[in-house]
Amino acid sequence: MRSSYQLKPLTLAVATLLLLVASAAAQAMRGGGIMAPPASQRPPGLDNVGIEQHLNEQIPPELGFRDETGQTVRLKDYFGKKPIILNLAYFNCQMLCPEVLSGLTVALRGLKFNVGREFEILTISFDPRETPEMAAEKKQQYLARYGRKGVEQGWHFLTGQQDAIAALTRAAGFQYQYDPKTQQFAHTTAIILLTPQGKIAQYYYGVEYSPKDLRLGLVEASQNKIGNLADAILLYCYHYDPATGRYGAVIMRVLRLAAVATMIFLGGFIVLMLRRDSFHAAHAGRTS
């Protein structure tokens, strides 16, 4: 019974690595994210709509906006402490923006990390006509959907003037276009992860976001200051692909880790067997 008990941690380690391998295979079979097509292939009227990745570029910290209370703030007020999810949207959007916010909220509810504690969110309108009152209404709506207490100081809904909006979207590579006929904006969908210093770390495309990808992205954007040992192992085994906005398994790393665990398992098994044989031999010698 004792040797069986001693083998359990090693068995669990091997089982965990096998699950990682299976997850890696599944990840490899899934399709990628949503990318803007080249301008030459875009429908008429959407020539200026898309995402141009500006990885590792600084979001201008001096840009001024107004928060949901109407107070004037600068982006640097939110920098320097925690990683940030930047969500560019507009509050009167009838199509994609609510889908992005809903998808983000669902992913947040799947995270053990809490908004305001491990990271913050900036949801910033790119429509200069929108007001702090609209921002406050939208904030209450999505905080209620998120359903966790004490996050009011961690999720910020901002509005601003056209010059600040233009500078922010240009720095983020977020390209959109106003349609005067529908009085709506044509735009793509993405959320952007920033380091605590406000540098662009990752883009996640589409309207649904994997909690696992989001957690790994936040751990990485925080320069590994949040998270635990399991996150460190997953970051070793998975690699962020800027082309898809997803984490994919690095198969060779997973296999190497599995091989090391297998050697440890076999070595431990051999040591246990040798000790058991020595114990039985010594016991037999004392009783003879």
Which keywords apply here?
2 domains; disordered N terminus; Glutaredoxin; 12 strands; five-stranded mixed β-sheet; about 45% helix; elongated; about 20% strand; about 290 residues; 7 helices
Mean pLDDT, all residues: 79
User: How does CATH name the architecture of the largest domain?
Assistant: 3-Layer(aba) Sandwich
What order do the SSEs take from the amino end to the carboxyl end, as H and E? HEEEEHEHEHEEEEHHEEH
What is the CATH level 1 assignment of the largest domain?
Answer: Alpha Beta
Number of helices: 7
Measured on Cα atoms, how large is the radius of gyration?
A: 25 Å
Give, in spatial order, the strands making up the sheet with the most strands: 6-5-4-9-10
- Indicate how many domains the architecture comprises: 2
CATH superfamily of the largest domain: Glutaredoxin
Please give a structural write-up.
The protein has 7 helices and 12 strands. With 288 residues, it is of the alpha+beta class. It has 2 domains: 2-31 and 251-280; 39-226, Glutaredoxin. Strands 6-5-4-9-10 form a 5-stranded mixed beta sheet, with helices on both faces. Strands 1-7-8 form a 3-stranded antiparallel beta sheet. Helix 1 packs antiparallel against helix 7 (251-287). The two termini are 25 Å apart. Residues 1-37 and 39-43 have low confidence and may be disordered.
Outline:
This protein is 43% helix and 18% strand. By secondary structure, the chain is an alpha+beta fold.
Write the layout of secondary structure elements.
Layout: H1 2-29, E1 50-51, E2 64-66, E3 72-74, E4 84-89, H2 96-109, E5 120-125, H3 132-146, E6 155-158, H4 162-172, E7 174-179, E8 184-187, E9 190-194, E10 200-205, H5 211-221, H6 229-237, E11 238-241, E12 246-249, H7 251-287
Parallel strand pairs: 4-5, 5-6
Antiparallel strand pairs: 1-7, 2-3, 4-9, 7-8, 9-10, 11-12
